Amino acid sequence: MSVLRLMIVGAGLFLVMLPSQDRLRAEEAADQFDCAACHPMKIRDFKGRRANPVTPVEEYPELATGKQDVASTPAMCFSCHDGYVMDSRAMWEGGYRGHRLGMPPPADMVIPELDGTPEFKLNEDGNVYCGTCHSAHLSEAEGAPPKVEPFMRQSADGGNICSACHAEKLAIEGSAHDKGGRRNKDFESRGICGYCHAPHGSDWPLMWARDLGKAELPVDQLCRSCHDDAPAPGDHPPQIVAWSQDVRGAIFTNTPGEMPVFDEQGRQGRVGNIGCATCHDVHREVAEGRAGDLRGLHLRMPEFVEPLCADCHGPESLFKYKFFHSKASRR
Amino acid sequence: MRNRRIIRNLAPVSVLITTLAVAADMPTGSPNQTAVLDMLLMPSDVAIGSDGRAYVVDSRNHQVAVFDANGVRVTSLGMMGGDNGQLLNPLGIGTAPNGDVWVADRGNERIVMFDASGRPRQVLELEADGEKIVPVDIAVGPRGRELFITSNNTHQVVVFSTKGEFLRAWGGEGEDEGQFRYPATIEIDSAGNVYVVDVINARVQKFDPVGTHLLTIGELGGKAGTFYRPKGVAVDEAGNIYVSDSFLGVVQVFSPDGRLAYVIGEGGTATVFDTPVGLAASGKRLYVTQMLAGKVAVLEPQAPAPTAPEEGAAE
Question: Which of A199, A261, A300, B107 is the S-S candidate for A272 at Cβ 3.0 to 4.6 Å?
């Protein structure tokens, strides 16, 4: 009798501890609800034979950035970030002015992977889009770090999300240009890169986050944002701001990336103007050569510190500079 | 021109209102657009004063644009900043019977009141249970003594006197009846009942003035009578409830008991507005704020004509 009673009590306890079908259904519905909040196609009103929407919604609309899931469209983001849930409206004001979208990454860029899955997704057309850096989910690759601040696929701390694709730029860490994002009130989310770059709201090239300085070359205006009175006259190789002759086709053309020259729009090319960044790599402190006494100069070729022109172009360059390049003395 | 009578077109329509096909069995009522109030930057809400003026929250211009009853812009209230009478990303607005204009100054996390002549008279930085309130919208009680405010950070409706004294609050974050996940706009009908758009729960909840839950309208969905991103709510003199959906772009009309009456549109096709958010109903008019279009459409909604009985049907 006592064994039977024990069995009955045990069975009762077992049944009580089992999740009820109602509860399971409720949990399932809640999961569905949370997904459907951004994925309308999970609602049968929008998709399938029973669809009967008040207005149709395309599952993969064609946008300026390419074809992509409706869940990751700017319209979907704005439906919450319009001030009523979160306020990110500056992003939508006056058009998008930030990180390049709607184009594939450069061929030589290595997109990191986790277990064979790209950590930073591209849209259906293989282009960079908002979802490349942002996701409302945990990263979908197994073993990925948990979701971090504002729906980022990686944290912005320490420039992590930027350097994941722009690895060479992280050489700035610990240099004189490493300001740690202190300019920004919310620097924790902007990281080391946010001191100079605003991926969501810049009016200037290279997502420049600061007011431009005064310089003839647009690309130098970025440097002059901070270095408005430097270098001091006489302490610096004279800047060449214009070519004295048509150099197109000249044999002394530049290899982009080594000692870059820039056109009027600030683009690198084989010919162009010499700017600050021709000799200085702002993302790299002295990595080789004579470290220490050159710290802070960010020279691309620290072994050539002075006189720079002659070191690259030979002693005759001083003559050439005077008669061809210098605005003051050229003929 | 059937049902498309333009009474006044006071400014050019800068963005074409497009329409998309929908199921033919959806009842739609004519919008009859009468005017457009534009040249605004991300307007978010509109309220009609006792003098017939339309007070439009010109949100990203950090001011309130004031239009007279004919749709002519007459003045502005506020300017960008955090000092007295200044605004920062204001979002919601309500008018009092005495002509005072109350603004939910979201960016400055406070309420600002302008009197009927446009002078800034009061700034209220509000706390409830020791927590500062980030206001999203504000509505003034029928007698002008109570301020009903939706709170973005505490997911509540908080009620204060016009002097800033805390009176009561209800809600809190959740999905149950009476709870909210990001309450947005708030409206009060002539009887003092309170209507709150519950954005992430995709519904509108109706309460009596002390917070007793009376009615829930809608749920997450895509068909007529449901919502995807409800944002604006307005109630007309007959008790009809208008709800905008900023993602789907439609405005739906519900009867006072919460049943779908019709969708604003024509011939079974919903009118698609560009990000419709705050609404206001005044007389026969409905004001629809369109955030990304930078304008407010002024409509005279008309319910669809009753369908004729089928031939052979018993009388």
Answer: A261
